[in-house]
Amino acid sequence: MGFLVAGTCGLVGCFVILRRMALVGDAISHSLLPGITLAFLLTHSRDTFPMMLGAVIAGVVTVALIEAIRYTSRIKPDAAIGIVFSSLFAVGVILISVFADKVDLDAECVLYGELGFIPLQEVAHFGGIEIGPEPVVRMAIIALIAVVLLFAFFKEMLVTSFDSGLAASLGINPTRYQYGLTLFLSIVIVSSFESVGVVLVIAMIIFPGATALMLTDRLPLALVLSTLFGAIYALLGFHLATWLNASIAGGMTVIAGIVFGAVWATAPQRGLLVTLVRRRQTMEAPPIPIRHEGQ
């Protein structure tokens, strides 16, 4: 489950980072809370479809409000994001607090998640055969859909991520793919609630892609590396959490931070060490002599 979450979030996160939507992803991860809470209160069900529908609606509302504030006022994008996600997240917290005695919603579980509870979930069946815990099966389906969509719309996502003007000239609508990415990001986030929670899911969206893009300029290779990093986070994070008797999601995030720090320091092209060496060589280089006219 940890690998499915980190790998899927990493694939989506590469495009999120390239589009400079990292803070938007953070806003969506927090703003989905009132969406899934209202979906539960209206349907009295924790089934996948109403939760996904509430999350998608909340994600669209979040992006729409951010864009509306940006283009109808002098408020900068970062301030607009802060206004929207803090307000919607607070609404979600209040809804959970007020209705905690009437509905079965655990605020701590929603905020932080717990991978250790995954084996206790109901088992999914297909044709009378037990497949596995429902959250794992659901996340595997989301991961498969992510891969299929990636192959189907890779060219469009590539062009719109790097040059929206070029995309528009080629007849590709950048706004359509922007909202499409937002919708799928919302689905991925709500599918990850049970494992890493709303607070830590943003780390799984940012760390794999950010680490991979430190190592390469080629997007296909970055997508492969982000998936590989997701596997490393899951494996080492699980063992770290077991050793410390701590949260598995927290252990995965700590490993993600350590891996990013190591790559940031030693990356061959953009690493801290290489940057310092280049800067030192530039400062120590002899000045270029200036020849005056007539010499």
Write the layout of secondary structure elements.
Elements: H1 2-18, H2 22-43, H3 48-71, H4 77-98, H5 107-112, E1 123-126, E2 129-133, H6 134-152, H7 154-162, H8 164-169, H9 174-191, H10 193-213, H11 219-244, H12 248-266, H13 272-284
Describe this structure in words.
The protein is mainly alpha-helical. It has a domain at 2-202. It is built from 13 helices and two strands. It has a two-stranded antiparallel ribbon. A hairpin with a 2-residue loop joins strand 1 (123-126) and strand 2 (129-133). The protein is globular.
Q: Strand order across the biggest sheet? A: 1-2
What is the radius of gyration computed over CA atoms, rounded to a whole number of angstroms?
22 Å
Helix segment tally: 13
Strand fraction equals under 5%
Written as H for each helix and E for each strand, in order along the chain, the element string is HHHHHEEHHHHHHHH
Brief overview, please?
This protein is 75% helix and 3% strand. It is mainly α and 295 residues long.
Based on the model shown, name its key terms.
75% helix, two-stranded antiparallel ribbon, mainly alpha, 295 residues
